[in-house]
Amino acid sequence: MARSKLFLLVSLLFLSANFIYLLYFESISSDFIYDHFFSFQGVVKATDKKLTGWNLIIQPQDLANYNGNLLIYMPLYPEYRVGDILELSCKINKPEILVDEDGKQFNYEKYLAKDNIYGTCYRPRIKVIGQDKNISFYLFKAKDYFWQSLNNYLVEPASSLSKAILLAARREIPDSIRNTFARVGLSHMIAISGLHMAIIVWLLQSFLIAIGISRKLSLWFLLIILILYLYLIGFPSSAIRASLMIFLVLLGPLLGRSSTSIYSLILAADIFVLINPYVLLYDIGFQLSFLAVLGLLWYVKF
To answer: What pTM was computed for the model?
Structure first.
């Protein structure tokens, strides 16, 4: 059997086994006691601003038997930044299965688990007691600078649209505009996706080669710049998938190997599922983007 066919067979078996395990056998167990009030310290790892408030991702530092992050829902003010060390007091809830009016179920617990979040908390009492000034702190200060500049120099809706396109912050876009983009089939234009990452990589690579840097060396510069940019925008799944796919396609020729896109796509899927199996079943963005690219690669033959 050819190595390429063997690779596809092993990959399909690996992805199928993970899918079946997640669907029928996997369960999230923990010794942590939910639905109780706790006082603890935590570091803000990520922020997500919506029109109605903030979602904060908190990494608890002294919460016994709790492993993972917390999702905290906050009003618009006061504002908190990545790197803030907080003293919190709140009731920690376990995410539950959501049921709509038609009886359809959505496993919110496993949807959050794909982001290493295993508990939620609403409007806690918070006191800022310090800041963790690591690389994340300074990168997000740069993001805040860009954010404020877009607020200062652009009016709505241009400001919220530019934040979505450049900083992966779509929550401030009014529903009316979001629905308009959806109706005309242009929602992908306001989300950091493969299109955006391909344009960024093409521009950066063209610039690096134009100033005399070899293709081999420019690849490593591109990798560093992409990682910093992904860090800046909070590592959205769509951007990570696109960056990994692009890097694999660019790496092939430098290693003297053909980089057939279908194999790069399957390899990227294997890597993501190996790192975080939950994306296979509970990340609709992963499913749709993977199938969309697969469809394009298949269609281009015709």
So the answer is: 0.69
